[in-house]
Design brief:
By secondary structure, this protein is mainly beta. The protein folds into 2 domains: 89 residues, Elongation Factor Tu (Ef-tu), domain 3, CATH 2.40.30.60; 73 residues, SH3 type barrels, CATH 2.30.30.240. It is elongated. The protein starts with 5 loop residues before the first strand and ends with a helix. The strands form 2 sheets. A 6-stranded antiparallel barrel has the order 1-2-5-4-3-6. It has a 6-stranded mixed beta sheet with strand order 10-9-8-7-12-11.
Length: 175
């Protein structure tokens, strides 16, 4: 399995007990959706390694308590501390309305109500304080904040995100 075909679920943060159980902090607003997993991919080095679960349940609301098959000692579990966890993209719950996953909108067009076509979304940069659509308009890069204040409609069938940006923002890049 390749990372491009998966989504980041969370990270193993600590041991739980002495028999190989681990706690993972989940990167989701709905941790209950993942409490009965049968397997996960653990990122070890540059590889995603499948691990099957004997037990998987919520622990104190935002943590997932994991007991892997073949991990039955503190020493074996310690080697997994800090490892990121992944699941296949098809396991993501579908979103509706104006909610979307960043990977889902790559290739969509941005259409501003004042400016018109802003370009194709090539990436979403979420490394800063504000996530940004990175769009390509005829070879020029345009950065638009991912903000509920700007997004008017997500048209999945038409593969377009309709936005209304402050006057002058797009012209900064294309003017």
């Amino acid at each position: 399995m390749r990372k491009e075909d998966c989504f980041y679920l969370g990270k193993i943060v600590s041991l739980h007990g002495f028999k190989g159980e681990l706690l993972a902090k989940l990167d989701t607003d709905e941790p209950h959706l993942y409490e009965n997993l049968e397997s996960v991919f653990v990122s070890l080095g540059n590889n995603l390694v499948p691990f099957f679960l004997r037990q998987c349940r919520l622990h104190k609301s935002r943590l997932l308590r994991l007991r892997f098959e073949d991990i039955d000692s503190e020493a074996a579990a310690t080697r997994l501390l800090g490892a990121p966890l992944y699941l296949p993209l098809q396991m993501l719950p579908a979103l509706e309305g104006n909610k979307f996953y960043y990977h889902e909108v790559i290739g969509f067009r941005l259409h501003d109500s004042r400016f018109g076509d802003v370009g194709e979304i090539r990436a979403v940069n979420d490394q800063g304080a504000q996530a940004l659509f990175v769009a390509d308009k005829d070879g020029r890069e345009v950065l638009i904040p991912v903000s509920d204040d700007f997004i008017e409609k997500v048209d999945r069938k038409g593969r377009t995100i309709h936005i209304r940006t402050p006057e002058g923002l797009i012209e900064l890049y294309l003017g």
